[in-house]
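Severity: low
Component: inverse-folding endpoint
Summary: output formatting inconsistent between runs
Steps to reproduce: submit the following structure tokens with default settings.
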């Protein structure tokens, strides 16, 4: 019950702050996936298959070249 009372006390500014941090974290994750990942993100879930086939690299290949990231 106390947690519910604390949630109700959040101001709009606090909610906007948490939303902004969430958007920043998602943006950084997207930047990592497009710019740096060579299959390791999917490798956690799919194992060596993701590392050999390099699906994320191929998915983001053109976006990397457009953004100026080296990938070869």
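Observed output (run 2 of 3):
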């Amino acid at each position: 019950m106390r947690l519910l009372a604390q949630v109700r006390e959040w101001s709009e500014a606090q909610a906007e702050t948490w939303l902004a941090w969430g958007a920043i974290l998602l943006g950084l994750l997207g930047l990592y996936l497009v710019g740096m990942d060579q299959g390791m993100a999917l490798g956690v879930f799919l194992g060596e298959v993701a590392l050999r086939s390099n699906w994320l690299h191929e998915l983001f290949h053109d976006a990397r070249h457009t953004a100026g990231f080296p990938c070869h």
